[in-house]
Write a structure and sequence with these properties.
With 66 residues, the protein is an all-alpha fold. It contains three helices and no strands.
Length: 66
């Protein structure tokens, strides 16, 4: 199990004293990003344009029905 508090503390120790909330948020986002077996970050999953259109049509229809 991952010790989240320890990872965040280590992140804060690595950041400069004058870091912004955005810097902290970006660091946490990287910690949360899915990792590959070797520990490197997995590239984001890309959806084909047809799937994006299908999901958008589905979402728009559900919004219209509200």
């Amino acid at each position: 199990m991952v010790d989240v508090k320890a990872e965040v503390r280590a992140l804060l120790d690595r950041l400069p004293d004058d870091c912004s909330f955005a810097d902290v948020q970006r660091g946490i986002a990287v910690l949360m990003w899915p990792k590959q077996g070797d520990g490197s970050l997995k590239p984001p999953e890309r959806l084909p344009p047809e799937e994006v259109r299908r999901r958008l049509r589905e979402w728009l229809k559900s919004e219209k029905d509200k």
